[in-house]
Amino acid sequence: MNPQAPSNTFDTPTNTKDWHTISSQKVVELLNSNAEEGLTSDEVIQKRKYFGRNELKQTEGRSKLSILWDQFTNIMLIMLMAIAIISAILDIRHGNFPKDSIAIFTIVILNGILGYVQESKAEKALAALKRLSSTQVKVIRDEITQQLDAEELVPGDIILLEAGVQIAADGHLIEAQNLQVSESTLTGEATAVIKDADVILGLDAPLGDRLNLVFKGTQVVKGRAKAVVTKTGMETEIGLIATMLQSVEIEPTPLQKRMTQLGNVLVTGSLTLVVLITVGGLLKSGWQIFEEILETSLSMAVAVIPEGLPAVVTVTLAIGTQKMIRRRALIRKLPAVETLGSVTTICSDKTGTLTQNKMIVQQVCTNSFDFKVTGTGYQPAGEFQGQNHERIEKEPEIVKLLEACVLCNDALLQCSRQPEKKTTTWSILGDPTEGALLSLAGKAGIFKEDLERNRPRLAEFPFDSERKRMSVIVDNADGESAYAMFVKGSPESILERSLYIQINNKPQPITEQHRQQILDTNTHLASIGLRVLGLAYKLLTEIPDIDTAEQNEQGLIWLGLVGMLDAPREEVKQAVQDCQRSGIRPVMITGDHPLTAMAIASKLNIAGTGDRVITGQEIAKMSPAELEEAVNKVSVYARVAPEHKLRIVKALQKQGEFVAMTGDGVNDAPALKQADIGIAMGITGTDVSKEASDMVLLDDNFATIVAAIEEGRVVYDNIRRFIKYILGSNIGEVLTIGAAPLLGLGSVPLSPLQILWMNLVTDGLPALALALEPAEPNVMSRQPYDPKESIFARGMGLYMVRIGIIFALLTISLMVWSYNHDLESANPDHWKTMVFTTLCLAQMGHALAVRSDTRLTIEMNFFSNPYLLGAIALTTALQISLIYVAPLRNFFETSILSPTDLLICLGFSLLVFVWVEIEKLWQRYFFTKRK
User: Fold this and answer.
1) Which of 877, 799, 678 has its CA nearest to residue 245?
2) What is the dihedral of CA 599, 602, 603, 606, to 10 degrees?
3) What are phi and psi for residue 685, nearest 5 degrees?
4) E strands within 150-298?
5) pLDDT value of residue 390
6) Euclidean distance between CA atoms 512 and 495, whole angstroms
7) Residue of 608, 639, 648, 857 with fewest CB within 10 Å of its CB?
8) Which residues touch 87 (CB under 8 Å, ≥6 apart)?
9) CA-wise closest residue to 632 among 610, 608, 600, 656
10) If DSSP codes are grouped into helix, strand and coil, which group holds residue 435?
């Protein structure tokens, strides 16, 4: 606990969220600091006692040893260990080598190691957050400017900022010169924020609009400033994110819950059978055959537990990750592969995921022309679609505006050619907004290098937040005067200083009607989410001085308006339609303006015209119950802060939604971790967001999420497919083993070692091949399955019991016949090998039939899963080798079968395949009749 702070050191708690509502002078005063001299060394010592170091603190997680121990508390592994110990005692008592026990313990250890490897990856999200902390910072202390470690900062310190500096603590600006800060780590928006030290804001101003504050972990991209530190360590905005990140409790995935449920059911069923067999045997025959009864019980227990299932599931998920990588999705946590198939809601960031993260001019309006512009990215290729003018771009009015776009511009349009791939890539060096103007002009054949060759820049008035304009003076020797000044910026600001308007090829006095029309057009373009710039020019006879911007930016000639947008990705609209067809609701959560958010959402059909947009300010005022009610109806959220994203995800989960959340910034990390599937951006994403996520989009594309969900659904379908394959066989084994003593056959037909062979090899190899089964035709045209559904849902439990009974009836029939036949032979245990072989071969037919629930095997492409054919051939060959290869025969205690015996085993085995196919025909007939 912190020591009590001296009352004369600071009178206002520094965890307040209201620093943006007061002036810098008041902030300095409240923190007992001095804007010119900084804190004294004694004051720093006192404050550090109270506030501690400026660092992020991490709560302790599970130790490696604890994770390893937890693997062996799994109920199925506990049961296997108990079986191994009892089996070892019996073997040693009879003077036999305990090979069954060793085999079982080997499986237990391998499964434990497998689980440990999956869970032991350390949580690195907070470590990535810590890397955002600046190591050195310039600070004024004891009237001296000095450089020290960022961790030494305390509230009240005066820090100096300049371009390229990473801000080391939250602070209030005291003074700023053309300061621009990239706050994408906090807000998710790539555009740098222009800061203002003198502004005082309202209490409910969202984080992205707090222009008088700077935040830890953000980057100065332009200008200089002085600021007073208001918050350090865990009290900063980044610290609050770290707190949220560590407070998120990780829930087991649907697959993990289902596997736990499966284990509980299997162990309970196994113990019940053991008790029934033991009690029944003792009542019937007494204690003299207790060891035989115990041997039967142990064999049944081993048969129930699918020892190879954890490995098959893990390999299946690993195969799924490889498929997803080919579709540009990197899975960081294996269970996420299957979890994707359960997604019902995708909460997506706007910038770069739904959009191209490239500003593109959509509309141009001059006095005579109003037209749309097509094209994608920064490539200077597209059409000018206007009022029946095929060559609008050649009109003098338009040419003049496009020249202004190019000359009043600091960006560069670059072309990169890759001859080996026969591709050309266009990119921007500089501000995306200015890049959009260069691309626009390029579509009309006007390029910067050509224009500046004849009209070089001679002077400029740089953009600043007060003027909201930028002007450049260029050589105009070939024109009407020696020089020309081109201006771009806020339409209202430029229009206010315009006395003329360009009509065709010459300026004319601007009228009030012109002004009103321009303002109405500007309002309309802004209302549909476009970012609007005004452009103008002026002829000069001499180059003005650098400090005469205000007097020279008067009497301008208005050229027109340019409206631009971070346009949607072309493939996203189809991906959104695929989502909606699949029962998945896309939701947009962005830090951008509500109008811009709704414009993009409407174009992508995420939301319709007139749908409600909820802002972060509104969310802050909502109770949890109100938000939970709203999330079912609202698909667009704008101007949101990190805590709002977390609340939205939690509210959706409370409503029973299974949420995938995308993000790229530090601000997204808590919501990414809270979501059922956290999806980080691979290109623009921060290390923090990637470490907090389950999946990384390698191309930052929403359409990739939909592709990954499709793979997730396929993986879940295949997991269900091989679970019912494995457990159907296991139930058959259990019933067969249990029937032997009841029928008076004297001993169990299968040893624990033989059962392990079936569960690991004859079950395992075909099960792995079933994991590679291609997607069903309707995989993305159906609703998501309920993530809370049982592993036995939709008839699977009944199927496994039914098929298990069929397995048992067929095998028991063979067992009784072969046992009676063996009574007359020289090898009394010959019948056990026939039972063992029949069970193994029957599983091969079952593997073929289980590929589809509805289609007959002959209706499917026999070679669509060649891995299954290979697995069946290999498993059959291995099983035959246990009979005819002497060392294996001796180890597994089998007998040689005659060709006739082998054919009999094969005949009984094929009946399982025939039964499953008949079931499909019956279901088809039944459902047709019901319709």
Assistant:
1) 678
2) 130
3) -70, 145
4) 158-162, 170-182, 193-194, 213-214, 219-231
5) 66
6) 11
7) 608
8) 98, 100, 101, 104, 298, 752
9) 656
10) helix
Q: Which two three-digit tokens encode residue 621?
A: 């005022």
Q: Residue 843: its pLDDT value, please?
A: 93
**Strand partners for 498:** 556
Q: What is the CATH number of domain 322-353+570-708?
A: 3.40.50.1000
* Boundaries of every domain in the chain: 19-58+131-232, 322-353+570-708, 359-566
Q: Are 836 and 880 in contact (CB under 8 A)?
A: no
| Residue 725 near residue 764, CB atoms below 8 Å | no
Q: How far is CA 4 from CA 52, 136, 769, in A?
A: 12, 29, 66
**Contact (Cβ atoms closer than 8 angstroms) between residue 584 and residue 577:** no
Two tokens, residue 447: 């390029």
Buried b (16+ CB within 10 A) or exposed e, 631-653: beebbbbbbbbbbbbbbbbbbbb
**For position 9, what pLDDT does the model report?**
42
- Residue 96 is encoded by which pair of tokens? 């036999």
Tokens of 368: 């005579």
pLDDT (0 to 100) of residue 429: 82
Tally the residues of the chain. 931
- Determine the Cα–Cα distance for residues 181 and 214; give it in Å rounded to an integer: 8
Residue 10's pLDDT is 43
Q: With respect to CATH, is domain 359-566 assigned 3.40.50.2000?
A: no
Closest-CA residue to 415 (of 426, 407, 404):
426
At residue 563, what are phi and psi to the nearest 5 degrees? -105, 130
Say what the pLDDT of residue 7 is.
38
pLDDT of residue 289: 63
Contacts of 366 (CB under 8 A, 6+ apart): 397, 398, 401, 502, 559, 560, 561
For the chain, the first-to-last Cα distance in angstroms comes to: 71
Q: Which tokens in the block code for residue 821?
A: 């036949």
SS (H, E, C) 299-365: HHHHHHCCCCHHHHHHHHHHHHHHHHHHCCEEECCCCHHHHHHHCCEEEECCCCCCEEEEEEEEEEE
Helices 290-304 and 75-93: angle between axes, nearest 10 degrees: 150
Residue from 663, 776, 702, 687 nearest 328 by CA: 702
Tell me what pLDDT residue 6 has.
Answer: 38
In this prediction, residue 823 carries a pLDDT of 57
Strand 695-697 with 329-331, pairing: antiparallel
Residue 502 confidence (pLDDT): 95
- 336 Cβ neighbours under 8 A, 6+ residues apart: 253, 677, 694, 695
Q: Residue 766: what pLDDT?
A: 93
Q: Please, how many CA atoms are within 13 Å of residue 778, restricted to the half-sphere of its CB?
A: 7
User: Which pLDDT belongs to residue 13?
Assistant: 41
DSSP for 725-743? HHHHHHHHHHHHHHHHHHT
Structure tokens at 795: 């008839």
Show the CA angle centred on residue 321, arms to residues 320 and 327, nearest 5°: 95
Mean pLDDT split into 10-residue runs, the chain, 931 residues: 39 59 91 92 91 77 71 75 78 74 78 68 52 74 90 93 87 90 74 85 84 89 90 86 72 77 80 76 67 72 76 80 85 80 89 82 93 89 77 87 94 81 78 90 93 91 83 84 92 95 92 95 88 94 89 95 89 89 92 84 88 91 93 91 87 93 80 88 74 83 87 89 89 84 77 84 89 86 85 88 92 90 65 92 94 88 91 94 93 90 94 93 76 54
Residue 597 and residue 350 in contact, taking contact as beta carbons nearer than 8 Å: yes
d(Cα 263, Cα 252) in Å, to the nearest integer? 15
Dihedral, 284, 290, 296, 297 alpha carbons, nearest 10: 100
Q: Give the span between the Cα atoms of 669 and 678, in whole angstroms.
A: 9
Topology classification of domain 19-58+131-232: 2.70.150
